[in-house]
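Encode chain A's predicted structure.
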Amino acid sequence: MSADTPLDRFKQATINTIRAIAERDDVLVGFSDSTAVQVLAVSGNRVRVPLPQKGMTSEAIAALRGLADAAALQLRYRDEALYQKALPVKAEEASIYAALEQARVEAIGAQQMTG
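Encoded structure for chain A:
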């Protein structure tokens, strides 16, 4: 991917950052231009990241980068088999479980990463 436009540079920086934080070169990063995609999506070694929209504030763009970082931490610190084994069946419980797991991996990342 060439880095000719600001969007191309954003994509490449995001891909590189996700792979570095996750400590995995096999991560495949996709980008969605849908404004409906505002949550992180991780499946196996795949991550879907929303693209910044025209007119977004720098704070909103930083929030998108934060979603990418959160996905990378999930890839690095989550044992997917164990996560799936303990995943509750009821939707509300599964939602709480997912939020707690994300908080766990982000807390580990905050402790392990400087800056």
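Residues 91-112 form the longest helix (22 residues).
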